[in-house]
Write a structure and sequence with these properties.
The chain is α/β, with parallel strands linked by helices. About 40% of the residues lie in helices and about 15% in strands. The protein is globular, with a radius of gyration of 21 Å.
Length: about 400
């Protein structure tokens, strides 16, 4: 499906009228509706959310109201897919703007992952069955690989992971998810974000140079030799977050020079050189908690999406909070959930018309649910303050 243009009446509404109509539609729907808002959404969206959180928290929040008919997810497409997988069949998940995708999620698709899996099987010693499933039978002497996909991925990749004995992770529970995988296999294939995989492995004590390789899906063997793949513990997909890739070691050093005593706090989707320099790194929820619970008068340079940083500034006036990137960087795809789209979607629901429903096919949902249930069963651990 693609997003059709909004009716003209919604494009001409001013901010105050849009907000009023959103509130009225929510009131009309009452307990039939739950609105979820990701932390990276603008304030004009967050003010209408029944729950706000990162992808891990919202995956749990989506399950709290089985009586609701509609889950309106103010996030991006893969999040709405996860909500559809995790909620009962009678609930309908709506994404206000179908154009709200994720550039990182688009960096790995099911065809590329299946091709990588097949090549790894050839190198590491498992035979590929002739039934076309691409489900390897691990040879007795072969190296077993456990796939782990970041939640920022399509539903069919979550299904691939579930079917092949792996799990989904978020930035909140990545360390425990990767440890879980390595307790069950010799290696981890981690996709689509190489930086979260690298920082997680380093947190667990693995050497990025010795123990990790990057898999480029556009090159044979991902651009690696067979010997290097056999040696590695981590096979990291060549993907990244367009927002967090903007934050650099140089920005952190400049912040320290300009603000003596500043605490540098970044997301683990950032490059490892920055994460190592930072005083703290962790998930979105971790970042919020660190700033909120910090002592008055402290100074924080935060490396994550600007809507969240700006909200932390406003909600913590007793501290100095600023974005590590002086040019600022919004998540452009999250930004596509404009209040006018939310207003349109809610008013159509109130009028009895379901629009922009996100539906994961049953065959995909079956295995994706296995992977997501594994994710939710793995309790998150506190993020490390440093990656060495």
């Amino acid at each position: 499906m693609r997003q059709l243009p909004l009716p003209e009446e919604y494009t001409t509404l001013d901010e105050a009228e849009t907000s009023r109509r959103i509130s009225a539609a929510k009131a009309a729907l009452g307990s039939r509706l739950v609105v979820l808002g990701h932390h990276y959404q603008r304030d004009e969206i967050i003010q209408h959310a029944d729950y706000r959180g990162d992808s891990y928290k919202l995956a749990q929040d989506a399950r709290k109201h089985p009586e609701a008919e509609f889950i309106v997810f103010c996030g991006v497409h893969f999040m709405a897919e996860s909500a559809d997988i995790l909620t009962p069949d009678h609930q309908k998940v709506v994404l206000p703007n179908l154009a709200a995708g994720c550039s990182m999620a688009d960096m790995a698709n099911i065809f590329q992952v299946r091709a990588a899996w097949r090549q790894l099987g050839e190198v590491l010693g498992w035979p590929t069955p002739a039934n076309g499933t691409n489900r390897p039978v691990v040879a007795e002497k072969g190296a077993s690989v456990i796939p782990v996909t970041y939640i920022n991925s399509a539903a069919n990749l979550k299904a691939f992971v579930g079917e092949h004995g792996g799990t989904v992770c978020t930035s909140t529970n990545a360390p425990v998810a990767v440890k879980w995988a390595l307790d069950r296999g010799d290696k981890v294939l981690f996709f689509p974000d190489q930086h979260l995989g690298r920082n997680t492995g380093a947190t667990l004590g693995y050497d990025p140079e010795r123990d990790m390789v990057v898999w480029d899906p556009f090159k044979p063997l991902g651009g690696n030799t067979a010997d290097r793949l056999k040696q590695a513990k981590f096979i990291l997909w060549k993907g990244h977050c367009s927002v967090h890739a903007r934050f650099t070691l140089e920005q952190a050093l400049a912040a320290r020079e300009a603000h003596p005593g500043v605490k540098v706090l970044v997301h683990p989707e950032c490059d490892i050189s920055l994460v190592r320099e930072a005083d703290y790194n962790g998930s979105t929820e971790y970042i919020i908690r660190m700033v909120t619970e910090a002592a008055p008068g402290t100074v924080w340079a935060v490396g994550t999406e600007i809507n969240l940083v700006s909200r932390l500034q406003k909600e913590n006036p007793d501290k100095t909070v600023f974005c590590l990137d002086p040019q600022i960087c919004p998540c452009s795809t999250m930004y596509r959930i404009h209040p006018s789209f939310l207003c349109w979607a809610l008013e159509r629901l109130a009028a009895g018309e379901v629009v922009n429903q996100v539906v994961v096919p049953d065959d995909v949902k079956k295995w994706a649910l296995v992977a997501l249930e594994r994710m939710l069963s793995l309790a998150p651990v506190a993020a490390a303050s440093h990656v060495d």
